[in-house]
Design a protein that fits this description.
alpha+beta; Arc Repressor Mutant, subunit A; 4 helices; about 55% helix; globular
């Protein structure tokens, strides 16, 4: 994970850690067409967020990353 993107990735995790968010809402807020800003993809690849039943949830790993922030 890029150290440049890490703060943005943790912002995404914090957003869904409050409560699960609908996938469409998360994509509206966090998807980008810029190949240098892969926030959603990096959060998923790191195991910080997961998609279940149409909603995005913070994982235990994501919550731990927030605590280490």
């Amino acid at each position: 994970m890029s150290e440049v993107l890490r703060p943005l990735i943790l912002d995404l995790v914090a957003h869904v850690a409050e409560h699960p968010r609908p996938y469409a809402e998360v994509m509206d807020a966090w998807r980008t067409s810029c190949p240098r800003l892969t926030v959603w993809e990096d959060a998923v690849d790191a195991g910080f967020v997961t998609l279940r039943d149409g909603a995005v949830h913070a994982t235990e790993a994501g919550r731990k990353a927030l605590l280490r922030r």
